[in-house]
Amino acid sequence: MANELNVDIRKWHADGPAIAAALLVPLGRHSVTVLFGPSGAGKTTVLRAIAGLDRPDAGVIVCGSEVWYDGGRGIHLPPQKRRVGYLSQEYAVFPHLTVRHNVAYGARGDSVDNLLARFDLASLADRHARHLSGGELQRVALARALASQPRLLLLDEPLSALDAPTRLRMRADLRQLLAGVQIPAVVVTHDRTEALALGDSIAIMIGGKLRQAGPIESVFDAPANADVAEAVGVETICQARVLDASAGLVTVEIGRVRLAAVDAGGPFTDVFACIRAETVTIERGPSPGPTSARNHLQARIVSVTDEGPVARVVLDCGFRLTAIVTRQSEEELQLREGEHVIAVIKATTIRLVPRG
To answer: Whole-angstrom Cα distance, residue 157 to residue 165?
Structure first.
């Protein structure tokens, strides 16, 4: 379609996994597509192929009606003809040049002053890049990437070079900047919080292959398989067996423990039960009245780990189950290793995916 970037490529490495990725990126409006997955999954290879910096071994890359790459026809449009803005992990800002000259490098038209103002760089225009902070360098690199008036913006781990406090602050700033420029972007990251903060849609890459793509909330809430569930940070993933189904619910068995879950509608028996830690509630005793939660499990606390404003609680309830609670709840419930509690899980929060 004329308003999409269509990527369907393969690339083989002698010392790594074969890369296979097929995705669509909407054009003509602001959107951020996140290429997400662990290190070594092939994300940067795909991004560099889109930019024209790496040549795939097979497949096609079509931007609107323009063919950027076609392995069968021997077409490979060079980077300078693709009109993309590319931001590398290291920003690649020229340290010996001023901010103004960095932004002006490769600029089209008279956009430099406008970009300096947009990215709050006007007061730094005559400062050399080597004297800038990490956040300032990022703004310079992004302004320079936009100076050529690209049709697509590509960012490779844009926050990885920053220290943790700066990275936390820059997430919100980067999202606001990307929304402000109204150019579609593809962002590579392996950070789950970063993906959620920046992305509108997401493509999960694992072991060189694109495993699942879609709106970011849909993919995180409903991973297609156990590998994707693990990649997006689902804390509890257990082998389970479906015993029966009735009234939209199924009974699954994990070891000797039975749980009620929403019927996923598939004709499968062997599944993985995926449970996010933030959906698990911990109680000290049985609820005094009726509750909508279907699963109340006797559990022993294996460990409690403080993680800033929350605590990670690992439970043994016949299988290992992780819960995330507030520090206030931890203290009020006096959650301590070895104590016995009740883990409460709603059937609607258990995601079942087929094994194999």
So the answer is: 16
- What is the distance between the terminal CA atoms of the chain, rounded to a whole angstrom? 34
The candidate with the shortest Cα–Cα distance to 25, out of 11, 51, 49, 7, is 7
One domain, residues 135 and 269: no
Indicate if 323 and 347 belong to the same structural domain: yes
Angle 183-187-192 (CA atoms, 0-180°, nearest 5)? 135
Are residues 218 and 241 both part of a single domain? no
How many separate domains does the chain show? 2
Domain of 116 in residue numbering reads as: 4-226
User: For residue range 65-100, what is the model confidence (pLDDT) as tens digits?
Assistant: 999 999 999 999 999 999 999 988 878 889 999 999
pLDDT over 90 percentage in the chain: 66
Q: What is the average pLDDT value for the chain, to the nearest integer?
A: 91
Q: What is the DSSP string of 296-332?
A: EEEEEEEEEEEETTEEEEEEESSSEEEEEEEHHHHHH
pLDDT of 289 above 70: no
9 pLDDT higher than 60: yes
- Tallying the residues shown for the chain, one arrives at 356
* Residue with token string 């879950």: 261
Q: Is residue 310 scored above 60 in pLDDT? A: yes
The answer to whether residues 275 and 251 belong to one domain is yes
Q: What's residue 109's pLDDT?
A: 63
Q: Which residues of 134-164 are buried (b: 16+ CB within 10 A; e: fewer)?
A: ebbbbbbbbbbbbbbebbbbbbbbbbebbee
Question: By the 8 A CB rule, do 216 and 234 touch?
Answer: no
Whether residues 219 and 346 fall in one domain: no
176 and 58 co-located in one domain: yes
Report pTM.
0.85
